[in-house]
Amino acid sequence: MKPSIFLIISLIVLTSICDTISQLFLKSAINSLEANINSIKKVFAFIIRLILVRRIWIGLIFSCLSLFVWLFVLSKADLNLAFSIDSMHYIFIAFASSLILKERVGLKRWLGTVLIVVGIALVTLSGL
Fold first, then answer.
1. Phi then psi for 78, rounded to 5 degrees?
2. For residues 59-83, average pLDDT
3. Measured distance CA(125)–CA(20) in Å, rounded
């Protein structure tokens, strides 16, 4: 028996949220480290510092959670529908990077985000 479209969309939203949280943690972690890498020794030192940053591990945990939910979604939904709705990443990242990371998101990017929302709505409605 196929799960309802509402359940599928909810799980895809959860995947997108987990991915967004993961990216925020990873970005803030990498921003906290100086990446002056000009020798093999400094590459290894940088990797060791990365491994020791807690935000990297939190980001990886959210990434794994997203993967497990996504694999469940793929087992229950058509790939075309799931992947199209999964484009919500672009929306969540635009908002999160603007609000949390204080990055500047320009008018063209917001316009592109609106077009993605329209596209997701059309794809979702065509799957009903």
1. -65, 140
2. 92
3. 24
Residues sharing a CB contact under 8 Å with residue 96, sequence separation 6 or more, in sequence order: 20, 23, 24
Give the position of tokens 């793929």: 74
Find out whether 11 and 19 touch, Cβ atoms under 8 Å.
Answer: no
What Cα–Cα distance (Å) separates residue 39 from each residue in 31, 35, 45? 20, 11, 10
User: What integer is the mean pLDDT of 90-94?
Assistant: 88
Per residue, what are the HEC states of 14-82?
Answer: HHHHHHHHHHHHHHHHHHCCCCCCCCHHHHHHHHHHHHCCHHHHHHHHHHHHHHHHHHHHHHHCCHHHH
pLDDT at 128 over 70: no
Q: CA-to-CA distance for 120 and 128, rounded, in angstroms?
A: 13
> What's the rounded Cα separation, in Å, for the pair 58 and 62?
6
